Amino acid sequence: IRPSTSPYSAPILFVGKKDGTLRMCIDYRGLNATTIKNRYPLPRVDDLLDKLKGSAYFSSIDLQQGYNQIHIEASDIPKTAFRTPFGHFEYTVLSFGLTNAPATFQAVMDRMFRPYIDRFVVCYLDDILVYSKTREEHLEHLKLVLEVLRREQMFAKRAKCFWAQPQVEYLGHIVSATGVKMDPRKVAVVRDWPVPQNLQELRKFLGLTNYFRKFIKQYSVLAAPLTNLTRKGAFISLESWTSECQQAFEELKRVVADDITLAFPDHSLPFLVELFSDALIYGSGAVLLQEGRPIAFTSKKFSGAETRYTTGEQELLAVIHALKEWRCYLEGRPFTLKTDHKPLTFLQSVPTLNRRQARWMEFLARFDCVWEHIAGR
């Protein structure tokens, strides 16, 4: 930063960090409201994790104050000005709080590592992961990555880097050759979470558990009594917290602690989608499998109108949701869809399709799936 004479002036605040130090944050809401948005896309975490199939060695690199390593245009510097008890200052580098900072930083990282992205490098903002099949290959990959960082004069935080490990933490997950699982530290946070005393605390709990919903069978169904409380006027006082809510709360904490490892998808193997149709009161769920190992779970909470669908329609809706969720894995290749026969029976028994059902039929026609009956249903 440097002293400023800019007509711009944003207030400051300080936020505590995990290591006990403080991070200075600028309240740029006024500036952000008038800023033309940079629409450069951030990668999906699931897409990044899917790239790791077949890898046995991992190195995670965390850049030292990554945003502050990117210089901004001279004409934009005055806009970053902020006020303190010690004077008026402005940033000469990218600052936290600027609406376009994440998109700008991601674009820089993608440009830097473009020759290596999806080959042996994935990046999410300042979190870099290098992955390789063998140790020898990994050392070569690391050399290339470090050469890029040196050339671009980007600096890493040594204490937060891990080199040539069989498993590492990345973006809130633990990745290894066997697959991906939840970070035990975040699992412990969920396990020790006290009963929410108000709507804000409940939303924080649901936000954390929702991040790991792909690990949880029928997450939407389990969480339904709690998500119902987030409706306007539903959580007025602790009297709104019923025994059903407490049961859902405890069950969510239990299933998060189950320590499930999800396999990485292998596009050389066939996929199997299996529906869970044993809990259609609140919604539906499904699991994506390969060779009997789960790749991901998904679930859908029924809306008010959807709860009034017939059982056949609800199961068909469950199929549609699962195929939409895993479209990137399933479209354009044969796969097996395991369920009871209600969805097929429903389609064959309806003499005239309404517009919603016609849309479902059109969507299903895009997929090459074999319907397999689940015995006993």
From TrEMBL:
<keyword id="KW-0255">Endonuclease</keyword>
<keyword id="KW-0378">Hydrolase</keyword>
<dbReference type="GO" id="GO:0003964">
    <property type="term" value="F:RNA-directed DNA polymerase activity"/>
</dbReference>
<dbReference type="InterPro" id="IPR043502">
    <property type="entry name" value="DNA/RNA_pol_sf"/>
</dbReference>
<keyword id="KW-0808">Transferase</keyword>
<dbReference type="GO" id="GO:0004519">
    <property type="term" value="F:endonuclease activity"/>
</dbReference>
<dbReference type="InterPro" id="IPR050951">
    <property type="entry name" value="Retrovirus_Pol_polyprotein"/>
</dbReference>
<feature type="domain" description="Reverse transcriptase">
    <location>
        <begin position="1"/>
        <end position="175"/>
    </location>
</feature>
<dbReference type="InterPro" id="IPR000477">
    <property type="entry name" value="RT_dom"/>
</dbReference>
<protein>
    <recommendedName>
        <fullName>Reverse transcriptase domain-containing protein</fullName>
    </recommendedName>
</protein>
<dbReference type="Pfam" id="PF17917">
    <property type="entry name" value="RT_RNaseH"/>
</dbReference>
<keyword id="KW-0695">RNA-directed DNA polymerase</keyword>
<dbReference type="GO" id="GO:0016787">
    <property type="term" value="F:hydrolase activity"/>
</dbReference>
<keyword id="KW-0540">Nuclease</keyword>
<keyword id="KW-0548">Nucleotidyltransferase</keyword>
<dbReference type="InterPro" id="IPR041373">
    <property type="entry name" value="RT_RNaseH"/>
</dbReference>
<dbReference type="InterPro" id="IPR043128">
    <property type="entry name" value="Rev_trsase/Diguanyl_cyclase"/>
</dbReference>
<dbReference type="Pfam" id="PF00078">
    <property type="entry name" value="RVT_1"/>
</dbReference>
